[in-house]
Amino acid sequence: TKGDTAWCPNMCDVLWKALAAFGVMLAFIALIVTIISQKYRQNIIIYYQRLTEFQFNAKVYRSCREISPGSKSGIYTIQPKASSLPFQVYCEMGDAGGGWTLVASIHENNIFGKCTIGDKWSSEQGNSLTDHASSGNWQNNNIFGSVSTLTFQDYKNAAYMDLNASNVMMWHVRNQTPLQRLSKVAKFKYFTNNNFLRRYGKTLRNLYNDFAPIKPAVKGINPLLSALNASSSNITSLVDNWYRYNYHGQRAIHFSGVYMFSSVNQVAYRVTGGTFSTIYYNQDHFLYDHDTEIVASSIYPFIAMAWIGNSKRNLEGLDFMVWLDHGENRREYQSTYTTQTLNVANMTAKFRAHNVFGDIGDPSICEVYFYIGSRRNWNSRFPTALSVRQWPSATSSASNIVGVVGWPQNILFGYVLLSRSDSRAVTVHQVSNVLMEYMKIAASFRFVFPNTPIVTRASFIRGNPALLNATIPYMERQFVDPGYIQFRAFNAYGFPNALCPGFKTNSVRPERLCVGGIKTYTSDDYRGVQSMYGYTYRRMKRQCGDFAGWSQRHPMNQTGPTATNRALNDVDTAILIFTK
């Protein structure tokens, strides 16, 4: 109609303008997306263009070692097992005699993403306060990634578990390097030539599954703690009117109804000459270079205990510091039992104790410091002294420091807290009876420390030990020895890293140096336990991820390490693993 004809031009004009505006908006969005992804897309395009010119070979081999000497490095097809399908791998035919099969690459896609997507060599499942598992990819049969993009993402092929080998080789290559340039631009190349892998199952999968699994450290002192806990009723019955104090959190004993402490029963340890580290209740601490394990256990009586193996005799001594606030002189008296010696069933012990007592209605407090050893049962080398570095002189508070010195070996060093509800002092006879019961239980104990790493010497093809050492954070260099490859390293809390590429280490912070790890905790978990665990779990957070704790909380440098961080250039590097 005439009215419709008048309406259409106006309405159509509006529609056309709207469509035009919508088209401009879409074009703008597309431009932004293009700009953001341009660098990555260009790299991929160039990568695949160059890949078409790279060495391919359609013949099927059992491994790269079967390829004729003098052949070019490149992509070949192998079938290590007749029962498996053929697959493509990168073969390095030039270095160290050639015949090397690239089985895996480790790549950090986000150093600040802790156990997030892309962390296939640690965990992609987020963190956990209690479930300290890993992806399992170091020790399982999973495969992932692609040979064509092995410097863009984590990579593992079937040769990792199916191809029997004797040695390994590793390269450090910047991320997004094309295959045909891997060898040319690798910053470090090193390999083993001692056939060590034959002793560990002939594959990396077998090495990690059977000899060095990536899971929290085995606690060698636990069997003894379990035996002491099982005898708790018998032990506490040796103290008349035993007072059963209450535990509060992970480092405190709390009064309930009667007055025991106005503050906490805090325990810390240090290696002679070092600084003190807090011992959280029921959290093991490990000093691997000294074959030493330390734990404080909230059983009855409370006990903090260290097994000192010290097989290298490189530990001069160990100190415990115990801080207690007895509360504003509410107790009237104190007394000290000077060093006493006990002998039971081939076991020998020495102890020293401090009593605070005498305030009617409040329990007494008796702190006992001791060591136990046996030349026959444990081949112990006894301390030269139970050294008292600091001892209380008041009834209100105390900060005691007691240690063992003289490079002791194969002994137990401990602190135990006894208490009586009737405010009377714990007698020296009662202290002796408690320790003699410990000695009887410990007589059958044998400490097993199955957490030793697998270490093998490596020879450099490119780079050298000094240059590799220059990539290590300054604070950790004293604990690093370049020119090796170490499989598995535990930190002081028993959490593992899988691989220390190019060096061995006895650091208690290997997360700053090594790669691969396990789940630790989430930020939500951390808020609930921060006051309880403090620094322990801040460290646990920074351990999670493929390159673990290479970035601490401090700023990172682009080209060189800091005191605690690796360089950004090293974070932007893939570690390639070959076997032969």
TrEMBL record:
<keyword id="KW-0430">Lectin</keyword>
<keyword id="KW-0479">Metal-binding</keyword>
<dbReference type="GO" id="GO:0005615">
    <property type="term" value="C:extracellular space"/>
</dbReference>
<feature type="transmembrane region" description="Helical">
    <location>
        <begin position="14"/>
        <end position="36"/>
    </location>
</feature>
<dbReference type="GO" id="GO:0070492">
    <property type="term" value="F:oligosaccharide binding"/>
</dbReference>
<keyword id="KW-1015">Disulfide bond</keyword>
<protein>
    <recommendedName>
        <fullName>Fibrinogen C-terminal domain-containing protein</fullName>
    </recommendedName>
</protein>
<dbReference type="Pfam" id="PF00147">
    <property type="entry name" value="Fibrinogen_C"/>
</dbReference>
<keyword id="KW-1133">Transmembrane helix</keyword>
<dbReference type="InterPro" id="IPR036056">
    <property type="entry name" value="Fibrinogen-like_C"/>
</dbReference>
<keyword id="KW-0106">Calcium</keyword>
<feature type="domain" description="Fibrinogen C-terminal">
    <location>
        <begin position="55"/>
        <end position="103"/>
    </location>
</feature>
<dbReference type="GO" id="GO:0046872">
    <property type="term" value="F:metal ion binding"/>
</dbReference>
<keyword id="KW-0812">Transmembrane</keyword>
<dbReference type="InterPro" id="IPR002181">
    <property type="entry name" value="Fibrinogen_a/b/g_C_dom"/>
</dbReference>
<dbReference type="InterPro" id="IPR014716">
    <property type="entry name" value="Fibrinogen_a/b/g_C_1"/>
</dbReference>
<keyword id="KW-0472">Membrane</keyword>
